[in-house]
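Hello again,

I reread your note about wanting to compare the complex against the isolated chains. To keep things tidy I'm splitting this into two emails, and this first one only covers the full assembly. Below are the input lines as submitted, including protein chains and any nucleic acid or small-molecule components. They are followed by the predicted structure of everything together. The single-chain runs will come separately.
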Amino acid sequence: MSESFPVLLAVMAAAAFLCRVAGFTLMRFVPVSPRVEAALRATPLAVMAGITALAMQGGGLAEGLALASVVGLTLVLRSDVAAALLGVAVVALLRWAGL
Amino acid sequence: MSRVLFSFDGFRRGARDGMPLAVSIFAYGVGFGLVAAQAGFGVGKAVATSAAIYSGSAQLAAVNLLQTGEATLWALFATILVINARYLLFGATLQPWLWSAGPLRAYGSLLLLGDANWMMTMRAIRSGEVDRAYLAGTGTPVAVGWLSGTALGAAAVSVLPRPEALGFDLMLACFAAAMMTAMTRTRADLLPLAVGAGAALAVFQVFGPAPAIIGAGLAGAAAAALVHRGET
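Full-complex prediction:
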């Protein structure tokens, strides 16, 4: 590769910027009907479920137990941030214990 | 366009919520900095890369590609486009809420868009957050953590234990699990959960992790649109 670093950087930045703004910009031309709104509302839930499912599948017992405890702790504590941080502590502890 | 709320209060609320994310992102910034240093990047180049791409997975792929010495500009561009394609979906879901803040504030906020603070912001919107500065607020501590971590790592200051030892590799998944639980209020919300999880696992088998996230989002959105009743 003969290009200088600033050129490489500009190309990489352009690609990353395009991803951040293109979906947002295109959505300006989509009329938001109740059906589209339902789809938009469902998207974060589906992505979060996807991330969780992939982590469960890729992980072992420690990861599975930690994520299950996060779901339970969120319902009990009624604070998702606290539950998530406790989940991180749980997996660190279980790994330290050799699970 | 009526002026919507974009205040320092909202920014501060977002920044406070983004703090815990920043800690784990910092640790990963150190990780990226170390990789970049091994690839011959100095501190300046490493931090510039973190600022310009601002996405861990895409940066690692880019550095790996550059190390082969045979990367073309197009290959570099396409690699980042493919790995970060999920941001198209994230931007689209934010649009109805964020656009009313005006183009400058909206596009400025999108520069700080990442996986974790997108989830956090969508969660806040669902709970009635109206202050559009919240997104930039959540992104700011994360960006500071990412850039300072990169600088330390590239300077070979590896004072931290490996992120895995602290459980930080599971941080994003823990936030995802917690927020999806908190956001699930009605039985109708269970459909995108099931469809998203199933689609992610199925797409992962064939195409790998980056497309799996997009597949989950699109499948969940499609399922919700299909079962939507009432006026279209």
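For quick reference: Chain B touches chain A through 100 residues (CB under 8 Å).

B.
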